[in-house]
Design a protein that fits this description.
Oligomer: single chain
Distance between the termini: 15 Å
Strand order of the largest sheet: 1-4-2-3
Structural class: alpha+beta
Helix content: 25-40%
Radius of gyration: 15 Å
Number of strands: 4
CATH architecture: 2-Layer Sandwich
CATH class: Alpha Beta
CATH topology: 60s Ribosomal Protein L30, Chain: A
Largest sheet: 4 strands, mixed
Order of helices and strands: HEHEHHEE
Length: about 120
Amino acid sequence: MTASARGRSYPITPVPKPRMTRSDKWKKRPAVLRYRAYCDEVRLRVVQLPESGYHVTFILPMPKSWSGKRKTEMDGKPHQQTPDKDNLEKALLDALFQDDSHIWDGRVTKRWGQEGKIIVDAA
């Protein structure tokens, strides 16, 4: 059974939480603008995440520069480079919750895919 068959899938391209500074409140750095747009999209699509027992799978899109053969080969394979899975999870939790200290148990996986999406599987 695939992850999309078990869980709820959201067509949102995952974005990691950037390291932010005080000046990011008024500066327009591209990484911060991408992150803020991602947070808005997560809220708009009403992503649901339980306090514990969740498994979030981040599907990261493959680069357009890859050949068709490589894309076919890598589709569904583990994503083993930046962004880190903890920064992806941090961005999602910060988008969903004002204070995420009540979240105590969850699992995160990241894989390659044709299009970016977030799959949430609740236990």
